[in-house]
Amino acid sequence: MSANNRCAVKEFPLPDREYRVAPARCWDANLSGPTSPRRGKRRRRSPLPLFLLGLVLFGCGFLLGRRALAQEPPAQAAGVSVSILAPENAAAGGGRAESDRAAPGREPDAAAPGDWNLLLVNWENPLPEDFSVPELTQLVNGHAIDRRAYPDLQRMMDDARAAGLQPTICSSYRTREKQTELFENKVQRLMNEGLGRTEAEEQAAMWVARPGTSEHQAALAVDIVDKSNQLLDETQETTSVQRWLMDHCAEYGFILRYPTDKAALTGVNYEPWHYRYVGREAAAAIMERGICLEEYLADVSG
Hints:
302 residues; alpha+beta; Muramoyl-pentapeptide Carboxypeptidase, domain 2; 2 domains; 4-stranded antiparallel β-sheet; 10 helices
């Protein structure tokens, strides 16, 4: 019989081998009165035809059941349940996500420059004019990130907290309008210090990306600080959170995007709080070799 009851064939049990038919006198008994002496002795029927019929029906049911099992998917035939992963928005309250993320130890897909997670966004490579904001996963405190990067981010934050740390996301996805506001604020502060507009914009761009050139607009970057030190300056690198992240971020597909000695290539000064999602394979190569995303993409493209 099929394990999922697709094929319901009635099975007839085989007769007991020790079964004996009733004596002939019981078969000839007249239920309305005494036995008539005039009636001739009736010939006893053989049980063999019924036995053969039951055997044939049992064989048909067995063969049909075997055929139904052979047509089932392997997982169902073996009694293995196929689970559907939970949606990511369940973690908006801080719970750990169970989604389509790469499990630790699983071989990552090969990286290619055109992959969504390797999108290069910098002062020389602004977002394409036809760029559309990807589907986002909303985080707590109004933050958001590309839903494809979210599972690894949640796992990284969970594991950091499990290590006794207190990582805090202070910035994530930004709209173009928000990026414009931040950039203009920085320009105005520099102009208030006596710089002209052009020079103020050039210096501001070293700390706040011009609109259209920010990874935050691509929804692939997060600024993470230690709850005990929420200053965005170089003291951040000495916190327990940053030491842990710099050692482990690549395991979750993230890199420290703006290292201390790569400003000439990235166009951005050292930021020991800015982490960018690139996928585990690229992250492992970048962090292990001490290079930046620009160098990595140049290598894999060449």
